[in-house]
Specification:
Helix content is 8%, strand content 37%. By secondary structure, the protein is mainly beta.
């Protein structure tokens, strides 16, 4: 498939004669927020799962939690009708949509970090697994420019509905989608892709021969057990590596760095792109004093 392919029941439809052509675009289920200058350089790159994963690990794409409610509050287009009957387009209405996600409070607080950010872009994934964005030249693929984004107050619940985080997005230029939009499918399931998960590292004890610490999810505090030695950076205070480490092992809820003559420094996860265990990002280094 290529950009803008239409899922049609009939194969002989010509130009605009789309009666009998089944539209495949559906409700938005995922929001991929990108940095302003990020783009996929080709259609092949846009459809490559590895390229997406690389962009997430590099901090170029932020995959938000699944959308459970969509509310379209777009403005009406303003048209002037002059005294003698002429009509003039004075302003095309902005596309304004509020997407709500059912998330715990800790995730809601993280989403609020989006408030006040500028020049981000938006790629949508709908429930039919279409990826929807902008292709200004028919080759590159990127999100549409966000003019304003605000994560509002977490909603109240009366016991019959869940609390939700409302994310209001105003598109800066609606024509990016309406005139130069691109929609396509991929071989993987884009609805299953998730953003990076925060990790909280906490020192338990420290000595010249052992550093004992916990690694827990930044939201919920679940003990994380899957990290391997190559995932960690154990540094001296000057930023150089502790070069006498013999192993990093997990047992009984804690990780233990074993070494000889270790000195004061910091312990952290490597960058997401360099980690063996994918999908995680440190919330900050843990310091230790020996």
């Amino acid at each position: 498939m290529s950009y803008g392919d239409t899922n049609c029941i009939e194969n002989l439809i010509r130009v605009t004669g789309y009666d009998g052509c089944e539209t495949d675009l559906s409700a938005t289920r995922r929001l991929w927020i990108t940095l302003p200058d990020f783009q996929f350089d080709t259609e092949a790159d846009a459809k490559d799962e590895t390229k997406l994963d690389d962009a997430v690990n590099a901090g170029n794409i932020f995959i938000l939690p699944k959308v459970v409610l969509v509310e379209d509050g777009s403005e009406e287009t303003q048209i002037e009708e002059a005294q003698l009957g002429d009509r003039f387009l004075t302003r095309e209405g902005k596309r304004i949509v509020t997407y709500s996600c059912a998330v715990p409070l800790c995730v809601h607080k993280k989403l609020r970090d989006l408030n006040g950010t500028a020049d981000l872009r938006l790629i949508r994934v709908d429930k039919n697994k279409n990826i929807l964005g902008n292709t200004p030249d028919g080759v590159i693929f990127k999100g549409v420019e966000i003019g304003f984004i605000h994560v509002g107050k977490i909603t109240e619940s009366d016991g019959t509905v869940v609390r939700k985080s409302p994310i209001m997005i105003v598109e800066e230029y609606p024509e990016e989608l309406d005139d130069n939009g691109a929609a396509f499918k991929v071989t993987y399931n884009p609805l299953k892709k998730e953003g990076l998960k925060g990790v909280n590292l906490t020192m338990v004890s420290q000595s010249a021969t052992e550093l004992v610490f916990t690694a827990k999810s930044g939201c919920g505090g679940t003990v994380l057990t899957s990290f391997v030695e190559a995932d960690f950076l154990v540094l001296k205070a000057d930023g150089s590596a502790q070069d006498t480490i013999t192993s990093i092992l997990f047992a009984n809820g804690v990780y233990t760095v074993v070494g000889v003559g270790m000195v004061t420094g910091t312990l952290n996860l490597d960058t997401p792109a360099n980690m063996t265990t994918k999908g995680f990002k440190s919330d900050g280094a843990a310091s230790y004093t020996i």
